[in-house]
Amino acid sequence: MRLTVLGCSGGIAADLRTTSLLLGTHTLIDCGTGVGDLSLAQLLAIDTVFLTHSHLDHTALLPMLADARLSHSQGTLTVHTRPETSTALCQHLFNGALWPDYTRMPSDDQPALRFAPLQVGDVRDVDGIAIVALPANHSVPALGFLLRGARRTVAFSGDTGPCPDFWAILACETGLTDVIVETTFANAQHQAALRAGHHTAATLAPCAAGLPASVRRWITHLEPGHEAALGAELNASLGTPFQLLQRGNDFEL
Ligand SMILES: [Zn+2]
Ligand SMILES: [Zn+2]
Fold this sequence. Notes:
Blueprint: E1 2-7, E2 20-23, E3 27-29, H1 40-45, E4 48-50, H2 56-59, H3 62-71, E5 77-81, H4 83-92, E6 113-117, E7 123-126, E8 129-135, E9 143-148, E10 153-156, H5 164-171, E11 178-182, H6 190-196, H7 201-208, E12 216-220, H8 227-238, E13 243-244, E14 250-252
Helix pairs in contact: 7-8
């Protein structure tokens, strides 16, 4: 099954989209602005979403996706995420003021959207791909995900600063082929990065140092306009080859 990057930027600007990855045809990992490039037919095919956390750059199009599906009577969209994330989204987004409460519409027993609780270590199967919830260290409760397929096993950090438990789990994952990890801030913004729960090149380097050389490193969530500077800092810090993740990149799992 194919994992396709719909968006991977830390912000918006022309040709940039925020975080979302499409797994096969009916599952999303995060629901940022990259989802807006899907055709209506592709949107209606999606019935499952895995969310790393509540922040808008990862959830912005979830209300619109639910709306599109409801208007075409597509049944319930299941959103797997931490209970803290679903609580935040229900309180602040699907609250009848910013957007209708689609967890109770069109009816309580057949809603347009339902949240399914997910904890670190939980495993869900999506068409033969095992999706494992990984720990993360962000300013709000967050997850990463491991996608274990027959051909490749890809780890995705979501938004996180240094998180020893994340790297400890990856160290035991013998089939690991790819790690997609965030770097959001420049080294000069070290304190801001720590407060916000994001990586700089300097904080990522020691975390990633234990990865086998055979594991491909992909960097995501760069701040728009700072890609070249962050790339240079990553080059100086990591000491191993890496690639900046791009919209349209895909992984055959
Ligand atoms: Zn975030
Ligand atoms: Zn983010």
